[in-house]
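Pipeline run #58 for the internal structure catalog. This entry was flagged by the ingest filter as a single-chain record with no existing model, so it goes straight to prediction. Upstream metadata was stripped on purpose; only the residue string is passed forward. Reviewer on rotation: M.T. Logging verbosity set to normal.
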Amino acid sequence: MAAAETTVALPPDLVEVVTQAVETGKYNSSSDVVREALEEWVQNRSLTPQAVADLGLLWRRSIEADQPGVSADQVLDRLERKYQAMADESSPSH
């Protein structure tokens, strides 16, 4: 697919993040930084319906199971660790 150009206005703090990402050498251009960010954003949004379906399936299985479940605190702790790790991976300084 051929690339199309567009102009995007960013606040100064995001411009600095993009500039630093290019200056580190990880990206060849600001376009590469923005492209990767948008691809991840699209992927994350597309996972949402599947995640909801997966949770529904797990919920139904847990209701039908004879085994004791996991406490809400354990689930919340696990989710907090998971999403904190994801945030750490996507932070500009990472």
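catalog note: The chain is about 70% helix and 0% strand.
catalog note: Residues 62 and 68 are 9 Å apart (CA to CA).
status: ready for reviewer M.T.
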